[in-house]
Structures are given as C-alpha cells and as structure tokens.
Amino acid sequence: AQTVTQSQPEMSVQEAETVTLSCTYDTSESNYYLFWYKQPPSRQMILVIRQEAYKQQNATENRFSVNFQKAAKSFSLKISDSQLGDTAMYFCAFPPRSSNYKLTFGKGTLLTVNP
Amino acid sequence: GAVVSQHPSRVICKSGTSVKIECRSLDFQATTMFWYRQFPKQSLMLMATSNEGSKATYEQGVEKDKFLINHASLTLSTLTVTSAHPEDSSFYICSALRSYNEQFFGPGTRLTVL
Description:
The structure holds 2 protein chains of 2 kinds. Chain A has strands at residues 3-5, 10-14, 19-21, 24-26, 33-39, 46-52, 60-61, 64-69, 74-79, 88-94, 104-105, 109-114.
C-alpha cells in the first residue's frame, strides 16, 4: 500500500527563522512525483513545491526547498526566512501511478509562525 | 497556476434536503476531477473520482447513492448530497487534473445541515 507519513502534527517557528517539516512515504514505484501543499486558514489548497523522483536535484521555489532522499523515501520541506503568512497546514502528497494518480495525503503538519 | 472554482462556497440546508455543489475548471479541460471531504484539523479524504463521460468511481465506504457525482463536461463536475443529514456537514473540496502531475484545487464548500 502507498502511504505518506507526517510525524509532526504541529510545529512553530519564529518569524525570519528556518523550519523543516518531515515527510516519509512508501512505494514500490520507481518514477513518481511528490508534492507539498499548503492550506492556510482560508482552506484553499495551494501547491508549494513539486519534486520528480528521477531528478536528483532538490526542488526549490523561492524560500521553499526540499530535501529529497529517494532511497530513504524521505521528502522534507524547508522554509527559510519564515513569514507570518506561512502559517498554515502543510500536507505532503504522493500520486501513485498504480492508483491512477489519486493523491495520497499525509495527515498534515500545522505550522505556526510567531512574530 | 490553473484556476478551479467551486460554487457555492457556503450552504446551509435543512435535514432531508438535497444540495448540489459545482466544480469548474476555468482555464483548462479536465477529464478527471476528484471530490474530497475534510473534517476540522484533519487531512483530505478522497470520496470519489469523477470522469467525464463515464460513471464516477467511489472510494470504499462512500455511499454512491448519497453522494451523486456527474461529470457533464470537460470543465464541470457536480456533487449532489442527497437527503442530507447533520452528519454530512463538512468541508467539501474538489480538484481537477490537468495532467498526471498537475492537480488544482477549488476553494471548497462548507456544508452545514441543520
């Protein structure tokens, strides 16, 4: 079974600091995508960053970057220079080809950025 | 990114009535759309996959007669909650697949059944 695990239900960070959210997953597929989505209080799901498994280089989007360890099946999200607007639920997600690309979500990490 | 709309954003209805929620992809065609349900402080739970021109595929445990899905066109999927009861109160989110690695979400619909 394809699973996604986020072991940190809640985290907090001071404004301007760096925080890392962890995610592990399980799959037997060799090529796939991994995603981090953000859900702010408005509840709109927003794509933060995407990583393709066959690319060794870690994806980066402005202040957001990932540490992708394929062998360890680990996909952590680093947020640099945290801003108050980063306060949100963060979900790690994985669309297995075997399930016709339906997203499997982790349980989420609630990140609070404190002023 | 692409835009997906949902209507209505909020709905309050009486127990026993039916409620229809629309999901539209505004700037791309989506053969496949998904419907999720989300309880407070929880993750998204996939309810069903909506395929244009064919029957929806429901996840295990989801009552297909209660949650009717129609994917009438390449830009519109509807979810009808039939004979709604208070336990159906929840936040419903749709998403549309532009390609196998691009899924865009609607803003969600908050359903309250009195």
